[in-house]
Write a structure and sequence with these properties.
heterodimer; A: 115 residues; mainly beta; six-stranded mixed sheet; four-stranded antiparallel sheet; globular; B: 111 residues; 0% helix
Chain lengths: 115, 111
């Protein structure tokens, strides 16, 4: 069975600090896809990144970076020099290789960036 | 390109009433999903569809029904509203395991 665990329910950091959101997944598939979504206070869900299981290169997009480690089944998300606008709930998600596979979401991590 | 459109955005129902949450996408996606998000919680899958005429239950289907007569539309019906169905409902669509496109959500209160 597939499972996504985001052990950090809520995190608070002061603006400009770096923060890492953890995501651990379980799957028996050898090919799978991992995602991160952001849900700001306004409520919409915003796609951030999709990663194929065969691509273990870390990815950086501005202040955002993602560390994918198959050895530990983790796909962690780091925000560098956090800003108040980063305050949101962040969801990690997993889907299998088949087109019919559903996307399984973690319970989310609520991030508070304090001014 | 509107993406995924959900209507209504807000609704208050009385216990026992019925209603249909509408979801339409204009991206020709085969896959569509309905989730509910309870306050402070993650997303729970209610129903999903892999194409017109095909629907299947998710994690929390009780109390809901869906239909998929066209590729574009995936309405969610509540037959007998209960307070436990107070939630925010999100519709999403995608091509297989591509990123899901989400609607803006429907905030539903059952009183």
């Amino acid at each position: 069975a597939q499972k996504v665990t985001q052990a950090q329910t809520e995190i608070s950091v002061v603006e400009k600090e770096d923060v890492t959101l953890d995501c651990v997944y379980e799957t028996r598939d050898t090919t799978y896809y991992l995602f991160w979504y952001k849900q700001p206070p306004s409520g919409e869900l915003v796609f951030l990144i999709r990663r194929n299981s065969f691509d273990e290169q870390n990815e950086i997009s501005g202040r955002y970076s993602w560390n994918f480690q198959k050895s530990t089944s983790s796909f962690n998300f780091t925000i560098t020099a956090s800003q108040v606008v980063d305050s949101a709930v962040y969801f990690c998600a997993l889907s299998g290789r088949n087109r019919d596979d559903k996307i399984i979401f973690g319970k989310g991590t609520r991030l508070h960036i304090l001014p | 390109n509107a993406g995924v459109t959900q209507t209504p955005k807000f609704r208050i129902l009385k216990i026992g009433q019925s209603m249909t949450l509408q979801c339409t996408q204009d991206m020709n996606h085969n896959y569509m999903y309905w989730y509910r998000q309870d306050p402070g919680m993650g997303l729970k899958l209610i129903y999903y569809s892999v194409g017109a005429g095909i629907t299947d239950k998710g994690e929390v289907p009780n109390g809901y029904n869906v239909s998929r007569s066209t590729t574009e539309d995936f309405p969610l019906r509540l037959e007998l509203a209960a307070p436990s169905q107070t939630s925010v409902y999100f519709c999403a669509s995608t091509h297989g395991n591509q990123p899901q496109h989400f609607g803006d959500g429907t905030r539903l209160s059952i009183l």
